[in-house]
Amino acid sequence: MPAARRSRSLAFAASLAACGGAPSTPADTTSVASTTSVTAFTPEEVAAAQKEQDQRMAWWREARFGMFVHWGLYAIPAGAWNGATHHGEWIRDTARIPLQEYDQLQAQWNPTAFDADAWAQLAAAAGMKYLVLTSKHHDGFCLYPSGFTDWDVAGSKNGRDIVGELARACAKHGVKFCTYHSIMDWHHPDYLPRRPWEAATRSTDGADFRRFESYLHAQVTEIVQRYRPAVMWFDGEWESTWTHQHGLRLWSLCRALAPEMIVNNRVDVHRAGMNGFSMAEGALGDFHTPEQEIPANGLPGQDWESCMTMNGHWGWNAADGTWKTTTALLHNLIDIASKGGNYLLNVGPRADGTFPPEAVERLQGIAAWMKVCGEAIHGTTASVFDPLPWGRCTVKANGDTTTLYFHVFDWPRDGQFVLPAFANEIVGNPRLLGGAEPGLLFALGDAIPTGTVNVPATPPLPHANVIAVRVKGSPQPFRAPLVVADGDTFVGAMAVRLRANGPDGEVRYTLDGSEPGAASPRAGDAIPLTATTRLRAQTFAGGTRPVGAAIDRTFTKLEPLPPTKQRATQPGLRVERFAGDFSKVPDDLDARQAEATTTTPTIALPANVGERVLLRHRGVLAVPKDGLYHFVLTSDDGSVLRLDGQTVVDHDGLHGPTEKRGTIALMAGDHTFDLVWFNRTGGATLALQWHAHGAKPAAIDAAALRH
Ligand code: H79
Fold first, then answer.
1. pLDDT in tens, 182-231
2. Using a 6 Å cutoff on CB, does residue 314 contact ligand 1?
3. What predicted TM-score, i.e. pTM, was given to this entire model?
4. What number is the average pLDDT over the span 467-486?
5. Most CB atoms closer than 10 Å: which of 205, 206, 566, 652?
6. For all residues of the chain together, what is the average pLDDT?
7. What is the pLDDT of residue 441?
8. Which residue minimizes the CA distance to atom 10 of ligand 1?
9. pLDDT tens for residues 316-368?
10. What is the band of 307 on the pLDDT scale with cuts at 50, 70, 90?
């Protein structure tokens, strides 16, 4: 998945637009253009908007941990319908329940054991600083009495205002109350589109999406004015009817209603797939929302929150026993905090209003840990070190000192904890949270004030143990040397540069596979490579002590493949079509008989290519000059690109529309081209781009393809 490239300023244009006046009326489509014409803002205006965003995000950035609550009518069937037990909050869709049948759940809504105070107390004790409740999920049912629909708790036999009770309970327990409100709505007659499976039976006659937008704005206004949520968490924005203009109007409404309210990025349409990272410049929202995943390297410089379930479902599913352990949940929290994000951990309450005991047990386990180690989570920022093999690090600045919290997942059995290297002076004794005081001895390593901490052989806490080290100033970690190289493969020769990454230190390297030592050559000028070479490098503090992570990279010299002798005079590629239930490219394709053969001028799927189909594009690719060529292959489902019989990109298997890259060295001239693609069911995508090393990817021009 590509990392998001977005400055935090994404929300500025719109927040400035919103400052300019009242939000536009949704039905008034003529005003849209003027609302969205984002003209140039002065640097002062941008700085003011940035400051405003920083102010409203301040508590959220400190919080690091929140509770998600998915609750609604779907808790009544608890995941089971017609014998299947895998459903969740999507049950009306996944079990294809007709509206009239689903409507009957409203009469059964009767959460007699709902105790808002108990929920808020559990969240507070677990160190969760905010709670996000589904005021409305995709099924459209509202957990509060809405003035704009009867499809709400007020229309059930138990009229309790769940949102109101929980908002008050959260306030009492010092937990910020927030609401999740789905844009997608499977109940409102004006919402479009219908679910594909109900399109024939649920008429869209008279449906008007502009009226739905008015309804959505009315409900958001109602919720904000009545319950003052600290965060408005939108979702279900990915359907075709929701546009950036709709997002801008909803964002502007929120900004005008409650300038201090935080709004997630799902208000707008620019997420890349379901992973929750806004990709486009100008995408709205205060924070990114990766779902069920933790970005491998965080999203440096940006605000993000990973929402994740405790088992495999958001809504209550009685059959789901796949509960993550308390250790796994805490490691997620620590991992996310160490990458600078927030963790929004879900609970799916049961229909009677109680949390499942498995969830309570885990929350209590987390609470016990947080009681001792909460200071290592709350108010911290991302690690400054290279990935640590034994755990994670969080950082907290306090005036002119900084506390480094080392969260140890794998406790050193020999009682010797080796600190990651940094150049700061340590203040006082390291602390083992939850351990006996003073407890720790500290041994200086060389001239650099880092080294080994003596720790008890048995740590005090389950799940993870935290060693807190206070240092002077801001952290100065030693990190792996920076490698400046133009890729990992080359033709002919290439140059690689090494640079120290951090405080004073020497970078030393080897090219023969041996471990770099204090006597290895010191990096200075560019290192020329003329053959495949393994480069190993390390920073040495004081000239002798290896510090930070080591570099171990192989640069591969490729010999360009000679052109084929195959004659190809016809323009375009030959396309063979095969029928079959493929889940991967079959090995025996050469032996199979195509059911049809056509030609194509460029690589593009025919309209309505269909399902259970495989297309094989063959011919030659004319390469303009000797060199490295990179290929970007996007497909849904699988595809494999071969040139001159060599696999260049293997993007095989069943998957959604994702891209994969590959590199090959080619001499000028024709090369045999063989691109296989298949679709089992659902979406069908195929695109191939290429570029010479150093150039930008582009589609393959028809002039380069013959057969
Ligand atoms: O509210 C939770 C989910 O219901 C919602 N976002 C989180 C916070 C969400 N909506 N859509 N998705 C997540 C992704 C869509 C997944 C789907 Fe499926 C795959 C929809 C249908 C197939 C998951 C699996 C839901 C039903 C089956």
1. 999 999 999 999 999 999 999 999 999 999 999 999 999 999 999 999 99
2. yes
3. 0.84
4. 94
5. 652
6. 91
7. 54
8. 236
9. 999 999 999 999 999 999 999 999 999 999 999 999 999 999 999 999 999 99
10. very high
Q: Is the C-beta atom of 139 inside 6 A of ligand 1?
A: no
**Which pair of structure tokens corresponds to residue 162?**
């769940």
Cα dist from 95 to 6, 524, 689, whole Å: 38, 65, 40
d(CA 528, CA 654): 42
Atom 13 (ligand 1): residue with closest C-alpha?
A: 274
**Strand-strand pairing, 705-706 and 669-679:** unpaired
- From 481, 462, 263, 509, select the one nearest 362 (Cα to Cα): 462
Say which amino acid occupies 171. A
Please write down the long-range contacts of 428-432, taking CB distance under 8 Å and 24 or more positions apart.
Answer: 428/470, 430/467, 430/468, 430/469, 431/467, 431/468, 432/456, 432/459, 432/460, 432/465, 432/466, 432/467, 432/468
Dist CA 591 CA 579 (whole Å):
14
Q: Name the residue of 67, 139, 235 whose CB sits within 8 Å of the most ligand 1 atoms, as the mutation to test its pocket.
A: 235
pLDDT (0 to 100) of residue 279: 54
What integer pLDDT is reported at residue 19 of this predicted model? 37
Q: Cα–chain-centroid distance for residue 645?
A: 37
| Cα–Cα dist 692/701, whole Å | 13
- Which residue type sits at 286? D
Cβ of 94 less than 6 Å from ligand 1? yes
Query: What is the per-residue pLDDT across 65-118, written as a single tens digit (0 to 9) for each?
Result: 999 999 999 999 999 999 999 999 999 999 999 999 999 999 999 999 999 999
Pick the closest to residue 270 from 287, 254, 283 (CA basis): 283
- What is the token pair recorded at 256? 């005008």
Cα separation, 697 vs 695, in Å, equals 7
CA of 291 to the centre of ligand 1 (A): 10
Lookup result for tokens 């629909």? 149
- Work out the end-to-end distance of the chain between its first and last CA atoms, rounded to an integer number of angstroms: 34
Q: To test ligand 1's pocket by mutation, which of 90, 135, 231 has the most ligand atoms within 8 angstroms of CB?
A: 90
